[in-house]
Task: structure prediction
Amino acid sequence: MAPVTVFPRIAIAPPRTAIYRRLGFRSASTRLSEAQRRETEAAIDAAAGLIRLAGASRRLAVIERGPDRIVLDGGAVLASRRLADFLGASREVLLMGATAGEAIMAAIRADMAEGRATRGVVLDATASEMTDAALDWITAVENRALRREGRALLTARYSAGYGDLDLEHQTLFHRLLELDRMGVSLTPSRILLPEKSVTAITGLREIAVETPRDAATRNERV
Result:
């Protein structure tokens, strides 16, 4: 079984377009005053200053597959027909997780408790989108390494609690990713804490690798 790769500090910029979309703003129909725009931007920047993104990933071989389950190296069973369909013929999977840390959650709770609901909503949206973006960052890092093997990740990912992959699988993801090393815990109801923490799974696929001869041939044809 491959070890867990830990990313103790993931540095990314706030994905502003996605944040505004999550807040319900639409470029074609939503109009913000200059004051509203400044307030929103200030809240996004404040959130980014509080968020401490960290993540983890782990590659695991698929040792058995059926129409409604996948068995991973080490014996972990993922019971889900839709996940089995999603992974298809993948012989390996990548588990990944990310967290925004506790400081941003404390700030959101303080804003809500002290009557700064608008700012709290912006902080919440920023934390959500930056945590999702951290998974994109991990995916990009893994894909760069996989390309040397002639492989790549599937273009989508699947999370516990989605479709027929029961939320109880979060316990398995938490353990296999060793998320406690990043300060992420799990409640009895399978909720990750801090709340802006996520996990996901995707599969590996084979890709064509261009050799130097292929490149030379392609250049000759141009």
